[in-house]
Amino acid sequence: MGGIKTSSDVFEYFRYTPSVPAAAIFVALFSLTTAVHTYQIARTRTWILLPIALGGYCEAIGYIGRILCSSQAPNFTMGTYLLENLLTLLAPALFAASIYMCLGRIIRATDGEAFSLIRPQRLTALFVTGDILGLAIQGGGAGVMTAGSLADFYAGEKIVIAGLAVLVASFGLFVFVALVFDIRMRRAPTARSCESGLDWRTDLKALYIGSALIFVRSIFRLVEYSQGNAGWLIEHEWTFYVFDSMLMFAVMLLFNVLHPSHVKAMLQGGRYFEKGGWRIVEVPVEKTGEVEDV
């Protein structure tokens, strides 16, 4: 992760030479966990996890772009930088979309609609819309930043910060809604929530952990962009791997192990992976009477 000395008055795509070994490791890690997610989605038909798989492909391709950037140092080009920066910047928003959709299904699977601050049918639409908005703002800002001048960078930087702020605010509201539901359900549990096979609390804990990881990563990127193109964080590559790469890989691995197909099967029937294992369990569709939706 060696550095390149550059002037703080000039916009630079990178202020160091991207590490090929580090990027290659995360290409392999994201490719592996994404392949597992693709298999799990196909076997259980848990379509709400498609955004997580898509985000994983974006991460893997983004790190391939990082390897290509390293081969160009110090004369980086906009195309490879855009490939790396855009895909790794936007992928977590796709992870968030799946997390939002999972909460709505947990609420419905436990017959806990009365305990939710927002109706489950509206909850998914509200948070996914906010997620798409944040993603679009970040993508637009990243595009402006690559125009090449300091003025363009500063303008794009402010747009990206706004997009990240939307994502952070959305996550904050999401966690608040989830906590309120959790507390109310614990105080007056429904008959459905007490069924031994449901185990909704483990599913909810997975959403908490995944949300916390994405939240920390988003705060890191907010601070990184706020410091500017010559900021301390953007000059030190290891911070990107510690506070972005590792956390986002942990999110994907978390949902490999605690696969949300379980709550989907409890709500709508079908197959699910046992938590922490590879055994597939079948829940009769006629037991639930639910119909698949988004």
Structure report:
The protein has 294 residues and is mostly helical. Helix content is 70%, strand content 3%. It is built from 9 helices and 2 strands. It has helices at residues 20-44, 50-72, 78-109, 120-145, 150-187, 200-227, 232-235, 237-257, 261-268, and strands at residues 270-273, 280-283. It has a two-stranded antiparallel sheet. A hairpin with a 6-residue loop joins strand 1 (270-273) and strand 2 (280-283). Helix 3 runs parallel beside helix 5 and helix 3 packs antiparallel against helix 6. It is globular, with a radius of gyration of 20 Å.
Count of alpha and pi helical runs:
9
Question: Oligomeric form of this entry?
Answer: single chain
Distance between the termini: 42 Å
Describe the strand arrangement of the main beta sheet, using strand numbers: 1-2
How would you state the average pLDDT, rounded? 87
What low-confidence regions span 5 or more consecutive residues with pLDDT below 50?
287-294
Radius of gyration of CA atoms, rounded to a whole number? 20 Å
* String of helices and strands: HHHHHHHHHEE
- Overall helicity: 55-70%
Query: What form results from the Cα inertia axes?
Result: globular
Largest sheet: 2 strands, antiparallel
Percent of sequence in beta strands: under 5%
Structural class: mainly alpha
Number of strands: 2
Topology:
Layout: H1 20-44, H2 50-72, H3 78-109, H4 120-145, H5 150-187, H6 200-227, H7 232-235, H8 237-257, H9 261-268, E1 270-273, E2 280-283
Antiparallel strand pairs: 1-2
Helix pairs in contact: 1-2, 1-8, 2-3, 3-4, 3-5, 3-6, 3-9, 4-5, 5-6, 6-8
